[in-house]
Amino acid sequence: MTRWNLPHLLLLAALPPTAWAAHAAGWPPALVLAAATLAMLAWLIGAERWWPHRGDWRPTSADLRRDGIFLGVNAVVDTGASVLLHGAAIMIAAAGLGSGWASALPAWLQWPLAVAVGELGPYWLHRWAHRGGWGWRVHGVHHRPGALHASNNLTTHPYNVLWNRLARTLPWLLLGFDAQVLLAASLFIQAQSFATHANVAGSLGPLARLIVSAEAHRWHHSTVLAEARNFGSAIPLWDQLFGTWYLPPRPGPVQVGIADQGWPAASDWRRLLLAPMCRRCAA
Asked: How do the domains of the chain map onto residue ranges?
């Protein structure tokens, strides 16, 4: 019998009380997401230590240093994106476009709709980035590590962070979802992005058809192109609808990362940051 990935399931179970407590305390969403990110990382890094999927995927000190640098850079970029989106929200409201249509729905319906809408734009951008060219020089940075663990979810180029943030948040603003629903959706998507990269043993069983699991996302990082599918980060809905869902009954890919040796070393964070601007940095 396949063992359940309990750290992933317990993380998801903690999200509703976290969102409720943050709302009751009046914490601003940015603070909630920042604190939740650190808590998620701590929880999953601990789980990786005690229940690893693969012993050879334990992060090295160089891995953690690279991931920490990308965390700092992307925190600055994400803050700037928040400012831009706040301005966009004001303009949308002034133009009468943000009518709050979605907020008229009950919360139990708003939340899954917000998650699905928030995943659609990033799904198509993700597929586009895998076609090569400049998009791959941006997104390939995330695929460069030759192992998967919770912290290297942070190794994502700031351009990638920016386009995902815009593609997710602008539709939310235009449809006028309730702010608390968006906080809950954001927490779920954030939790999924870390849990699906975590080097934790176990399966989500039939739940993997409803939410993205680590066992499914590992195939996306395979160096075999035919296996590198599953472009959704939180739910597999769009992969299932557009024919890119892939979950064979095998333990996972033999090798993850980038087969092209022209890319800089996985620990060379400077050249990874320059990859979109420098063809030779991501040959």
From this structure: 6-282
